[in-house]
Amino acid sequence: MRNPRNWHKDHEQKLTVGERAADRLRNGMGSWKFVFSFLAFMGLWALLNTISLFAHWDEYPFILLNLFLSMLAGLQGAILLIAAKRADSLSSAMAEHDFETNVAAKEEVEALMTINKQQLDAIAELKKMLEDQAKKN
Prior knowledge:
137 residues, mainly alpha
């Protein structure tokens, strides 16, 4: 029996540095940890810029924060598109692997069916020979 190829590991080894980084960023930005950390950061930013004890580097209406949020949104869109492209290539690789597996399985089933037919023909021939021999005796 042949050893099955781990196509997923093969595919991961062929990834570029940019594709790996996009996957890591997508996984990080798509987590609850990121969402809660981001909310905490925004709350802290607003708090530090409204309390009079600290220097106000970005007073209300928080124009600098709005700039950062706009840049983050632009980057997230690009990262999500890169990750979606990667997911498409992974789906394509999975479909190709499934097709190769199906073709190999079909060939094996056809070979087994040929052997089975040969065995059935041999059994029928033996049965006929036994019946002919029984008639002679």
